[in-house]
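During the reporting period the student researcher (J.K.) took over the structure-prediction task from the postdoctoral fellow and processed the backlog of single-chain submissions. One of the processed entries is reproduced below for the supervisory committee.
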Amino acid sequence: MERTTTTDGGPVIQERRGGGMGGIAALVVGLLLVGVVAYFLMNMSRSEQVESNAIAGAAESVGTAAENVGEAAQNAVPEVPAAN
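J.K. obtained the following structure tokens:
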């Protein structure tokens, strides 16, 4: 809103008032945008961590299974008595 006041021979006074709502709305929208981006970045990081943990767990299971197979193979072969 703009208002101009004139007086006889005196200075001209101009008053300008803005509602300020545009600046506040832009600030709120900016903060929301930052929050949404941060949320997605944190979720992406968690997903990668869960995937890495799953792969590590699977590798550990494969290692354990290989040990079990090795032990079973050793137990399946009868011991040969030593020659005297």
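The committee noted the following: Strands lie at 2-5, 13-16.
J.K. will present the remaining backlog at the next meeting.
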